[in-house]
Design goal:
Two copies of one chain form a homodimer.
Chain A: E1 20-21, H1 24-33, E2 36-43, E3 46-57, E4 60-66, H2 70-75, E5 80-93, E6 101-112, E7 114-115, H3 119-133, H4 146-151, E8 152-158, E9 161-167, E10 185-193, E11 197-198, H5 210-213
Antiparallel strand pairs in A: 1-9, 2-3, 2-5, 3-4, 4-8, 5-6, 5-10, 6-9, 7-8
Chain lengths: 219, 219
């Protein structure tokens, strides 16, 4: 059980407060289904939003990247950061244009990231990241060597100040619009994995592992 | 034909420069396949990254939302903004953990948004947005009325300063790793539409329109 959560003025939803989810477990289910986040940081007053992968363990998010990248160099100095994860679930086609919407689940985490520099903790964070994205893959791969670890930066962001927002379910139209003669409903959207494409130089005796064959984000 | 594009120091890629795409047409193909963006803006030094839908016409991006929302209220004052669109195409499973990657296409647009306040232009921008997300839907819907238009803010962001980044194709392993005995290859990922779910109060004589039945983002 993780601790209960009280939103701050920065994370309390202003609009559509009925879509707010302040429950930590619910937010973690969203974070665990996704693996792509958008990281926001500020350089000279200009916000940058960069897509990257992430992993979660307990009340921490981990992101990684080249030690030489603009983002990692900025973030390791402990600047304010925003990490947002969005899962898109569907298009909501109302009878009126105004009531069109999307079904989605999103989490916004605010905070400051810190560099994971203890070598053991760094390898463990990389394992977490790998297992978050493709569970089962770490043990089947050639492990990182010293040079590779040096070239990689790992950052930890505590999940302290956050909000989650969920819209699900059917169309909500104004009562007067239900007689408007048009189709209305939801088009479900889902990220699905296609047939794996083996590498051209793959040893033909090596089978596709189950974690690849049955890859899915549903938890 | 749109004008050629020269990156600024803020949008020139630092890392993995081989993945950079500075061609405006290529960036627009990415923007036209997506419809979900992540908008970054700064309040009191803190970056916020919020998911929202968008539309494109010519060299402009349009976003919209409740006139009362925190994001729209901030952005309409012409603060610096970053709009990022990411399309995820696959997981790249290399033999080494270090060479694992993702196939993706992303566009980052920096600039300042302006409020679209001319009523005619505002309706046209809303039409663009709607047609960007579900082509064919606008004409089939009950059009926005005065009250709804008032409650909606539309912002225009010129696509002037931007960068695009693309990673596609197979695994790239270190030469020494090709003999490492593990599966390697690409797991393709795709956002797909499921079977449309008609609204519970739908008139049963109304057919599912073709733009719903054959909904797809591939352009």
């Amino acid at each position: 059980m993780s601790q209960p959560y009280v939103p701050t003025p920065r994370t309390r939803l202003v609009r559509e407060a009925d879509r707010a989810v302040y429950d930590r477990e619910a937010a973690y289910r969203i974070l665990d289904e996704g693996f792509l986040c958008h990281v926001g940081f500020v350089v000279d007053g200009q916000p940058f939003v960069i897509p990257t992968s992430y992993g979660r363990k307990d009340d921490s998010l981990y992101i990684h990247g080249s030690a030489a990248s603009r983002m990692l160099r900025q973030l390791k100095d402990g600047v304010p950061v925003c990490v947002t994860v969005t899962l898109l679930d569907g298009l909501v086609l109302a009878r009126s244009i105004f009531n069109h919407s999307m079904n989605y689940r999103s989490v916004v985490v605010l905070g400051k990231a810190t560099l994971v520099d203890d070598p053991k903790e760094k390898v463990e964070a990389l394992r977490l990241l790998s297992e978050h994205i493709i569970p089962g893959r770490w043990a089947d791969s050639r492990q990182p060597n010293e040079r590779e670890l040096k070239a990689t930066s790992v950052l930890r962001l505590p999940i302290e100040e956050f909000s989650a927002k969920v819209r699900s379910g059917p169309v909500v139209d104004d009562e007067a619009d239900y007689s408007f003669p048009t189709w209305a409903g939801v088009v479900p959207l889902k990220m699905v994995a296609g047939t794996p494409i083996g590498d051209a130089r793959l040893d033909p005796t090596i089978q596709v592992p189950p974690y690849v064959k049955r890859y899915s984000r549903s938890r």
